[in-house]
């Protein structure tokens, strides 16, 4: 089994590919705006990473969205539904969780086919 670490750093890699699956976790770079804006920003980072690895959002299998305030669930869903490819919605769950940075409103974990 080969493991490819995309843009590895000391703490973590931007993505990891193993057994034909891409694993990545993205957070908003700016930490500005409401949950809808931060979700859109974070999903654009997902698009960028997947494109760098020869994949795209139509190949996403699973998404886990972490949010510190589930009262902002509808805002997050507005951005998600505008972004997700028609007919290609992955399995998804949303979890209420304290995030590592107090300004973040979302953290998104993706598993996609390479």
Task: Describe this protein's structure.
This protein is α+β, with helices and mostly antiparallel strands and 114 residues long. It is 25% helix and 34% strand. The protein has a 6-stranded mixed β-sheet with strand order 1-2-3-6-4-5, with helices on one face. Strand 1 (3-8) and strand 2 (13-18) form a beta hairpin. Helix 1 runs parallel beside helix 2 (73-83). The mean pLDDT is 97.
Q: Features of this protein?
A:
114 residues, 6-stranded mixed β-sheet
Summarize the structure.
The protein is built from 2 helices and 6 strands.
- What's the overall geometry? globular
Q: What composes the largest sheet?
A: 6 strands, mixed
What structural category do the secondary elements indicate?
alpha+beta
Adjacency order of strands in the biggest sheet: 1-2-3-6-4-5
Overall strand count: 6
List the helices and strands and how they pair.
Elements: E1 3-8, E2 13-18, E3 21-26, H1 35-52, E4 60-67, H2 73-83, E5 91-96, E6 107-113
Parallel strand pairs: 4-5
Antiparallel strand pairs: 1-2, 2-3, 3-6, 4-6
Helix pairs in contact: 1-2
